[in-house]
Amino acid sequence: MVSDREQSAHEGLDGPSLRDALFAEKDAQPIRSVDDWAREGIFKTDEELREFRDWVAAERKANLA
Question: Does the predicted TM-score (pTM) go above 0.70?
Fold first, then answer.
């Protein structure tokens, strides 16, 4: 939920201006490389990793049409 203070701070902003204000407020940094997302131990087992990869492949196929 957005507080009144947060809403008034962004009032009148839209599109890129709103995006830039939100990024600046959170001190968010752009992702420069997929290495920024790399983490060890996200999947506890090889089976979990395989299930995730199968799901991603199925989603990609389903959304090709």
Answer: no
